[in-house]
Amino acid sequence: MTEGQRKLTGVLTLPPLAYLLLFLTTPLGDIFSYNLTAPETPGWVLIATAFHFFMFLYSAFVFAFCMLHLLGDGRAGKTVKLLWGLLLVVGNVFVFPLYWFFRVRPAKEG
């Protein structure tokens, strides 16, 4: 992985965390109090719901990238892989930037 690809990967790990923090600290959670099939539902609610679904898919792809990178990492021992795997499963979007910082960023071409 080139230096530019590593930096891009780091930037791409941030949106799920930013979205989760935004979702928890704003009234975006009220979206789910609307009846999405009612004709009087505002258009922004439908857009926000679609974006919410997209962020779940995006987070799943970032999670898959992190797990595949971890499993293919020849520098890490079994214990390190197990601990990072558990952290990624339990911490999920909070751990993505940390995983990038400690495992992906310092990677050197072999």
TrEMBL record:
Keyword terms of this UniProt record: Membrane, Transmembrane, Transmembrane helix
Protein name as annotated: Cardiolipin synthase N-terminal domain-containing protein
Transmembrane regions listed in the UniProt entry: 12-32, 44-70, 82-102
Domain of life: Bacteria
